[in-house]
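Schema walk-through. Below, the input block comes first and the output block second. Nothing else is stored per chain. Lengths vary across the set, and this one has 507 residues.
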Amino acid sequence: MNMQELKELIYQGEKVDIECKKAEKNVPKSAYESYSAFANTKGGYIILGVREDKTKTDPKERFIIQGIEDAPKQKEDFWNTINGNKVNINLLTDDDVKIVEDGSISLIVIHVPRADFNMRPVYVGENPYKGTYKRNHEGDYHATEHEIRGMIRDQNPEGNDNQIIEYYTMDDIDKETLRKYRQIFEIRNDGHVWNALDDKSFLEKLGGYRKDRKTGVEGLTLAGLLMFGTGQAIRERFDNVFMDYRNESQVTADIRWNDRITYDGTWENNLFNFFTKVTPKLTEDLKKPFKLEGGVQRIDDTPVHKAVREGFVNMIIHADYLMDAGVLKVIKRSDSFEFTNPGILKLPLEDIYRGGNSKSRNPHMQTMLRLVGFGDNAGSGFPTILAVWKSEGWIKPELIEDTNLDQVTLVMKMEKESDDKSAEKSAENSAENSADLKNREGMALSERHQQILAIMEAGIEYSTEQVAEKIGLKGPRTRQLLNELVNKELLACIGTTKRRRYIKPVD
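--- output ---
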């Protein structure tokens, strides 16, 4: 990277992957906080030798390149510190720390990669609960205990769904759900030795029930309870988990959805029921060619059907069900499908798109679904989706990671692009102007979203509490709505998690 390229980065202003530090004579302590924040979020660049004038709004005036006095010494000091006990782990190589010079001006550029899931949290000092940082828009903030616990959980290469949920037994299994699953299993696995087992033994084979040999504790696992449990038992133990399907294919100004499946007391709201109730609704409008297999059996399935189911399966097996709050959200529109799950990505995006490597949070759930015909082998699910969409000539499916809301959304648009306009259109979509964005998202905004935008004056900072009081909602729900609007780029936010303020941009 030369000085001209570096200036282009600096004059974009600080954002989720750019942090500037004055560092005239020494590497500031805050640089190591930014190192932790980038490593725990999406990676980024720390640029030493840039002063910030907070009285200016134009990035070219706000960020002043003044350089540092002794770049080689600061570089050496940085390496000595990062390899010492200042942080718990050094992720950097020689290529990640560079001195960039232009005449008498010297800057140091530090590229911080995203840490692997088994290395997070990356923290300053000796206590992860005090020294772990994350990146949020333009600043670093102390990670919450909830966020840190999530990182520690993700270190487990075996996933999360094998843990025993104490005091939950076979009495908490919905017999009808398990019967339905076993019926499908028997059809697909005729003559399998598991078919003769009782329900408890069968669940043990699936990983839905387990006894800890060391402690003697036994009971349903997380996978067993969430997949096959009674709705009451699930709500008692996992009142933080919600399942929501909405068909928004015919949304109007007066109708927010034309079909919805969420908990309403009419069905046992476990994951297997949710999956089997929603899947037919997702695919019922897809074209089904008529053909006979062996001249006898009608086959209606298509690669598109399979890809949509794969998107649904991915949502279930990658969700973090131990978060303080989260929604498994499935949205069907006339030209797209969206699958949202709580929990950020365990692997970098490029690894997921490439395939061949799977780090599911819930491998036992993955096995349960695969054994009855849903979901590909480990590491092949997302490439399958990509291949099918490419064969149809549709826009490449997009994985969107929101580290503020701790969720991931898979967007599968059934929209064709001409080869000569594909790149241009993709760029337009990524950099969509405010007016277009409002038009595109207008139908998707809820009444609460619109209410928030209506009560906020442009250019004025609002706290979560101020907005909550005006619209009559509790703080956590209001914060979720505000962050959703930030994600849609209809609001901006500043400050740390505890002191965050929200601003509606001036048109």
